[in-house]
Amino acid sequence: MSLPPQAQWPTGDVEQLEPLVARVLAPNASPYTYTGTQTYLVGTGEGLAVIDPGPADPAHLEALTRAIGESPVVAILCTHTHRDHSPAAAPLAQMTGAPIIGCAALHIFSDEPRVDAPFDQDYAPDRALTEGEQVTGPGFTLTAVSTPGHTSNHLCYALEETGALFTGDHVMGWSTSVVVPPDGDMADYMASLDKLYAREDRIYYPAHGPAVEKPKQLVRGMAGHRRARERQIVKLLTEEARPIAALVPVMYKGVSEKLWPAAGQSVHAHLIDLERRGMATRSGDIWAIG
């Protein structure tokens, strides 16, 4: 997590990243979306797949319509159903006639406050993909890679022809992913990082931030960062039992206080994982080791 850079970003423009991949940036920059949600167009003029159509923002939908032009859309795919990723799927499907194919619907009702984008309760796919299932179009094949953790329904998509992987919010170069209980799960997130590390993808295209040109190096670093955070939690709680609100200022010293609520959610996810493994206990809002 970090505050978005102070710069003008090409929202609404089509950026051709490689022959089969183009990108359109939505105008929704924030501390949780960085410069905004990046919608990817995969394919050629003979047929396209749209990955993470983004928010149902009229300007973004107009930009996507311009970018698509006369090309038929064979599928609209979402990596997960946070509201900065999937709400534009339904209006785009109406405009193009394309089916919504990808992650499963997820309906979470919780009294716990969310610091990132809440879930899109209206998302309704025509077909939900599971691990290894594919979507094909003229000259491209996208394979679903199940990566729960950030959300339980998170999918990445592998472009088989080029070795690119569309990683949604699971792996991003600008920030670690926020893991928010009860749906977000730290153990699942770590397992999904291990899963990607075992792959041989050439490049990652995340939903936020720049492309990742050294995927294994980044994933190794992210896993190491999470393990370091866990060790930090264990050390602090070994010294003294305390609530999450007392852990965050120590652990995230130097990080903008605006981002502490999100950091606290990831700390909570770590603690739940430690509790399941028999390493932490809680009494009310006080956590302890043992």
UniProtKB/TrEMBL annotation:
For this protein, what is any one GO molecular function term?
hydrolase activity
Superkingdom to which the source organism belongs: Bacteria
Q: Which SMART domains match?
A: Lactamase_B
Keyword Signal assigned: no
Q: Which Pfam families match?
A: Lactamase_B, WHD_BLACT
Q: Does the keyword Hydrolase apply?
A: yes
- Segments forming domain Metallo-beta-lactamase: 36-208
Which keywords are on file for this protein? Hydrolase
Q: Which SUPFAM superfamilies does the protein's record reference?
A: Metallo-hydrolase/oxidoreductase (SSF56281)
- Which InterPro entries does this UniProt record tie to the protein? LACTB2_WH, Metallo-B-lactamas, RibonucZ/Hydroxyglut_hydro, Sec-metab_biosynth-thioest, WH-like_DNA-bd_sf
What is the name of the protein in this document?
MBL fold metallo-hydrolase
Biological source species: Aurantiacibacter xanthus
